[in-house]
Task: inverse folding
């Protein structure tokens, strides 16, 4: 088969001339008819998956707590359409009212902690950026990515803001 013609949706293909092929859509699929009159299903896909199933969220409001236990700051529901390996990217900014004890944060990916952050502030007036990523293998179905924060001591405020989450398939 040397040359290929493309037919319109709904067109009834006839056998192409010798040396020609015909590509045509029908019922949501694509087909190829060779010059011998044989119809072949055109397989599309099966190629790159990196970056598919992308979901992202930005949660900008500043939140504060004096809790010494994890407080949910952001939750991103995700519907996993294809089982595979996924990557979660995260970013947030934090601040602590004291330099005497730690700010804590945790990122959970499908119910599993994938990032833990505990640090003592050196400047109570500064916002500190944190970013990172991690990986997980997931089955088909609904899942969530969650960000929690708290402080080591309840006598002081912990703040978090500008939370950004992205989730996508890598293989």
Result:
């Amino acid at each position: 088969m040397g040359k290929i013609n493309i037919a319109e949706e709904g067109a009834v293909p006839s056998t192409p001339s010798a040396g020609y092929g015909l590509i045509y859509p029908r019922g949501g699929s694509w087909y190829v008819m060779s010059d011998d009159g044989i119809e072949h299903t055109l397989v599309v896909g099966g190629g790159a998956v990196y970056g598919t199933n992308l979901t992202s969220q930005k949660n900008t409001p500043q939140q504060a707590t004096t809790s010494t236990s994890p407080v949910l700051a952001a939750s991103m529901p995700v519907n996993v359409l294809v089982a595979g390996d996924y990557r979660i990217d995260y970013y947030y900014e934090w601040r602590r009212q004291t330099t005497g004890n730690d700010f804590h944060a945790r990122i959970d990916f499908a119910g599993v902690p994938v990032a833990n952050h505990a640090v003592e502030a050196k400047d109570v007036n500064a916002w500190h950026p944190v970013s990172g990523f991690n990986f997980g293998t997931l089955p088909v179905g609904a899942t969530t990515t969650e960000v929690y924060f708290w402080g080591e001591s309840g006598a002081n405020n912990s703040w978090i803001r500008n939370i950004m989450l992205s989730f996508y398939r890598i293989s």
About this structure: The longest strand covers residues 84-96.
